[in-house]
Amino acid sequence: MARLYLDHAATTPLDPAVLEAMLPWMGCDTGFGNPASVTHAYGRTAAAAVEQARRQVADLLQAPAEGVIFTGSATEAINMAVLGSMRFSMQRGRGSHLVTCATEHSAVLAACEQLRREGATITVLPVDANGQLSLADLQEALRDDTVLVSLMLGNNETGVCHDIAAVAALLQGHPARLHVDATQAVGKVPVHLPALQADLLSLSAHKFHGPKGVGALWRCPEPRVRLQPLLFGGGQESGERSGTQAVHQIVGLGEACGLAANALPAEMQRLTALRDRLEAGLRATGIPMVCNGAGRRLPHISNLSFPGLHGEALLADIEPELAVALGSACSSADARGSHVLRAMGLDETLSLSAFRLSVGRRTTPADIDVAVAVVARSAQRLLRLSPLQPRGVAG
Q1: Would the pLDDT of 227 be above 50?
Q2: Per DSSP, what are the bridge partners of residue 325?
Q3: In which band, very low, low, confident or very high, does the pLDDT at 335 lie, cut at 50, 70 and 90?
Q4: Which of 21, 242, 283, 302 has the most CB atoms around it within 10 Å of its CB?
Q5: At what angle do helices 365-385 and 311-318 cross, to 10 degrees?
Q6: CA 231/CA 9 separation, integer angstroms
Q7: Which domains does the chain possess?
Q8: Annotated catalytic sites, by residue?
């Protein structure tokens, strides 16, 4: 096992308080009731726990609780938002155009490709070298039949943030709905729907010390955003996500939201300090380094390229001591490198030497110092062996 975990953007350790909250709902004598079985106390007790968690999610987002739909993951929530809203509109002849961005998560981009096969028109906007989206490009892309604009709040590989409030302001007066993938941002920065003015927002528990296997989609309840369901059956979650609710996981998501609400904004400041310490420490070692992404970034993610090194070689050298990522967890086996970095215009050499290091609730300044020492030692050794060693590259 790796000794030091710096891959919190992939997943986070379950908070002990979250586990404690979940355990009563996993027993064989209590907590096993079906929330839909309201004819007896077992079911009513489970239903009350689900509604309490719904309020906790809504409180973190500062949004109405009736807008929260529990899902099995952020991927499912994203698909509900993207496929659900587009299919509802397309089936009624109300529009078939969607706008998104080249650096979105694969859950968004793959859903868009499916919609393209179903007859939708998809506009994928570019980003600049810093990973930033042009509002002018977005405005130009909007059409009369645009149904949805889907953008992430903070990128899962670089941490670069879109100005969602400015996007929402641009959409004022246009019928298009705004979906925000906030999966990496929730629990790290304040994510408040009154400020974002999003119509749909997706999140996942395991990205902020909750359990895997549960996420949520918030959709505006008034005026209600209409979605074509992905699942049909028992009519749970107001008919928008059928299937027996996993009470223990939903309770875990609610508890994780409660803990996150209490910790912000102090946690955001602490994570920012750790990220900055990491980047400054690596620069101070003198190894060639490029920080990928600029402007406003999420506080816990650093995406760094080490010119002259192949990422897989460096990863193999440090893995016994550090757990880090070459890119997102969902694309870590892609030999082509990151689609996010390619969209930013990085050449193949820099893209294939890129690492994502991400800090979390348990990360300490001492951990960062250890990580800097390990990476610097390995990089310096490999650079001495590398025929690609750059000359005069500034960090």
Answers
A1: yes
A2: 356
A3: low
A4: 302
A5: 130
A6: 29
A7: 4-11+264-385 (3.90.1150.10), 17-263 (3.40.640.10)
A8: 330
